[in-house]
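Worked example

This section walks through a single chain of length 289. The input is the sequence exactly as stored; nothing has been trimmed or padded.
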Amino acid sequence: MTQTQTQTQKILVTGATGTVGHQVVVELLARGHAVRALTRDAAKADLPAGVEVVQGDLTEPDSLIPALDGVTGLHLITFGGPYFAPLETGPRILQLARAAGVRRVTVLHGGGPSLLEDAVRADGGVDWTVLMPVEFMANALEWTDGILTSGEVREPFVSRLSAMVHEGDIGAVAAAALTEEGHGGQEYVITGPELLTVADKVAAIADARGREISLVELTEEQAVEQWRAAGHPEDVIGFLLEAYGNTPEVGRTVVDTVEKITGRPARTFSQWAAEHVGAFKSQPGGVTP
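Given that input, the structure is written out below as tokens.
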């Protein structure tokens, strides 16, 4: 854990309304820093009080010029635009960031090759840090409909292991990298503190809500049918089959990045379930299975 700088810094967070970006905002505020959040539609942003919301689009880098004014740190995502296409504007974004006096940049790894991430890694003018989280605990929110309507979770590969990470811990590591010395040129794999099967996760949610949940194991064919019915495109389905059926070692190996960077242990899935139990307990009409 490096020493936190005491002076207030102003940080620009892109993707601030997303699962991780929101947590980066929360953690920066908790550290006492000024936060400016970039969004394509400022009127729809739902962010904590005290956040300066500005409009801009990563696919149009020059729209960031006003947002970068006075900023010391920049958190980036690797996709942009209304269809979440991979960004090709990394070099221009970094050029503008350097010109504005940005000293530190974090980039959230998108799970594969990225032109923006390549541009960040190649840039010698800023201290960059690449954040590489494994499976988000928030992915369990995809089970809410099944739990609320039938009291069950339907998943394939139920014995697969995951070192899934609390999204708040990703935000905490990002906030440290954006405001402290010593993180430049680093690539941080970020995991939770334990390996979990699907059954372990379902049991933790059931314990938090005080009501049993049935786990139904699907075949690959049934899972594909379920994902298609949910509207997932074929490339996403292919990714899910590979990620769940043949989880890479990095996704099932616990590392202590969170504790090293933040000085406290990574949060458990049971903690996450307790924090989000409301999502698994209520539905229209007040009926709970």
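What to look for: The chain has eleven helices and eleven strands.
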